[in-house]
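For this section, I looked closely at a protein sequence along with its fold in token form, which I now present.
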Amino acid sequence: MDPRTPESLSGPPLPPPVSHRGIQLARTGLITNGLLALAKLLAGILGNSYALIADAVESVADIFSSLVVWSGLRISSRDADQKYPFGYGKAESVSSAIVGMMLVMAAIGIAIEAVREIVIPHHAPAPFTLIVLIAVVAIKEAMFRWVFRNATELGSPAVAADAWHHRSDAITSAAAFIGISVALIGGPGWEEADDWAALFASGIILINGVRIIRPALADLMDQSPEEEVFRAIEASARGVEGVLATEKLRIRKSGPRYLLELHVQADPSLSLHDAHILSGRVKSAIRGAVPRVETVLVHMEPYEGT
């Protein structure tokens, strides 16, 4: 093969798709959330703690969110086809938005029940519920750190949403621990501290839900990525020998990958063949500088500057 042919200039191979690794993370979260939800629900019922029951409800929402993330990652792993020529990467953003909305709905439901429990007198929680909550906080915080670190490496919004779901669960469990502790230490008349903790936890869940929805909607609306991505792409393109100027760089995100269009100005005397070869080198340089770039459309123009 001629070293100057377009095939040799298509750029370095893209990193392996994130779907398989993301699915493994979602599967682990699914199993963990299932076990913790069952433990918290039983402890909440037997220990007379609505904050713990509310925490169990949030874990059940975690189970559904992991299933949604799992489905989104499986869909996004499909190759582009005639029906979806730009691929299925947006499925990750859709699943992230669904997870965020599930958190918002769970927060509203927990808040309503917490207010009802505050109004209705009830017995204080059992002391053993604190032990359950300590274990839950430790496990869920560890899950958050592990999944979020992987989400950052993969650049996956769906995996990041799943990570924040783990963090919200850890926060609700910590709030439940504080509420139950106050109820037990305060004695008679302080039983509702458990329910106030559930109400506080619902607010945290609501904030996390909105925090997940906003970037997901931004990706679905094709919001431009960070300025650093623009600078890296423009610098790599302008560094190619023969490129005299660049303009009209447009970037949109599809899952963890970038799809971009770029106008490149070169010597007007270049033949069509040489201009095509130059565009291939620009694509190669861009992909080398930003490996998450999946598609590069280069529009060649004659240089008319000074």
Observations:
- DSSP finds eight helices and three strands in the chain.
- The CA atoms of residues 137 and 174 lie 6 Å apart.
- The domain at 225-302 is CATH 3.30.70.1350 (Alpha-Beta Plaits).
- The chain has a mean pLDDT of 80.
